[in-house]
Amino acid sequence: MRKLIIFAFIGFLAQLIDGSLGMAYGVTSTSMLLTFGIAPAVASASVHLSEVVTTAASGISHMKFGNVDRQALFKLIIPGSIGAFAGACFLSNLPGDLIKPYISIFLLILGVYVLFRFLRTSKTKSEKKSINLTRKRSITLGLIAGFADSTGGGGWGPITTPVLLSQEGVPARKVVGTVDTSEFAIAVSATLGFLIALGWQEVNWFWVTSLMVGGIIAAPIAAWIVTKLPSYLLGVLVGGFIILTNARTLLATWSLQDWVPVIYMLILIGWAGSLVFVIWNNKKGFHKDLRGDSMSKQENIHQHPFSITKKLRQAQHGHKSYILWFTGLSGSGKSTIANMVEGRLFAMGISTYILDGDNLRNGLNEDLGFSSGDRKENIRRIGEVSKLFVDSGIVVLATFISPYVSDREEVRKKVQQDEFIEIYVKCPIEACEKRDPKGLYKKARSGEITSFTGVSAPYEEPENPEIIIETSQYTIEECVQQVMKYLKDNGL
Question: What's the pLDDT tens digit per position in 428-461?
């Protein structure tokens, strides 16, 4: 009974840390089991089996508190599950001790970056509501982290959390919640792999039950903590924990036992100092953030129902309202086509308005630059403005490079399914450079302009747009006709 209570407490503590910071359950639990002389494969199997239950409880809790980015979750779980299953099946044949130090060095550097990035971060409007995770990146990250999780008895959180947090403007709360929730699929896949390789008889059910009990109790508490901690504080906590856990691995690998107390003391002092600094730097809003009484909190905002609805406004205009979202590289022809389409619609008596990137950066978005975070905030604002136009019964034509798939999908979610029409103005970058109406490509190639989409910044092609217009193959008139035909065929 005593052992059950002790290890249930360890499971509770491990899940509390894991659920709050997005990592450490596997590392903590596996380390404890290994100290009792349990074989690495059996220890990892026991931990993953207990995680099937604890991560399910944690995932439900995080979803309830709104800590999960569902799009990023679904992108991570498939490659992560494949990696975890493969790692579990081949654990005994892997040179884990040889690989682990190199992974720890990478994560240690990433931990330092995360800590210092959040030291310079305050609670600003530039923090986004979702994680910008491309399919290509999710596959690579999921496979590596899932594989490392099975072979090391805990690696999904320590790898996935800092990698996602290293992006500018990502919400720390969403990262922690998404990573912790996705770990359920990883645990299930790894457990299946271990059961195939080891069999049920090798599982230590005492450890599994003890860890499950503690983890289930801790899961909702940890999810609640994440909702209360401001992102800048959560980021510094995660960064410091990454540094501490990976320093431990490197010290053990390099046999530097004599330096352990000194190095740990320096890390803890630096970590504590960082926490004090980030709290002091954000002292004006810190207490409000912890209490949750900031007026920016959604629960303190109540939408007022008005008698004039969108349907009534559409009836008065005599047509449906929707967004024509033109996306593509600079010079692809977005504004030119949108201008002509608006002319056709206007001539038909349809109420329209064009939202153009350059025009809005001279007013509404004049405070934004061209960093990844500012680009996302630019599109978020435009999405909100577009939604207002649709609600007013007007057809809005939005012409923006909008390079990230996740940003465009966030705009799509703001309106009804048939009210967002994504138009991919497709044109090879070579053709765009030849046109270069504003001389921007020339400046980008010379280094005069940094973070220029297509040259020094990425453009993510639409995955399933309603319309694809290839301006390098068709005339402007033919492209306009293609848009008008789509609208006619769909009763718009």
Answer: 999 998 888 788 888 888 888 877 888 888 889 9
- 335 catalytic? Reply is no
> Is the pLDDT assigned to residue 140 strictly greater than 70?
yes
How does residue 59 score in pLDDT terms, banded at 50, 70 and 90? confident
CATH number, domain 310-489, options 3.60.21.10, 1.10.10.60, 1.20.1070.10, 3.40.50.300: 3.40.50.300
Mean pLDDT check: name the lowest of 113-117, 139-143, 260-264, 323-327.
Answer: 113-117
Task: Say if CB 169 and CB 376 are below 8 A apart.
Answer: yes
Mean pLDDT value across residues 30-45: 57
Give the active site residue among 44, 50, 104, 402. Answer: 402
Q: Sketch the domain layout of the chain as residue ranges.
A: 2-291, 310-489
pLDDT tens column, 332-384: 999 999 999 999 999 999 999 999 888 888 888 888 877 777 888 889 999 99
The CA–CA distances, whole Å, from 342 to 135, 312, 322, 354, 428 equal 34, 23, 13, 8, 25
Question: The pTM is what?
Answer: 0.48
Asked if residues 420 and 412 have their Cβ atoms less than 8 Å apart, the reply is yes
What is the distance, to the nearest Å, from the Cα of residue 457 to the centroid of all Cα atoms in its chain?
Answer: 18
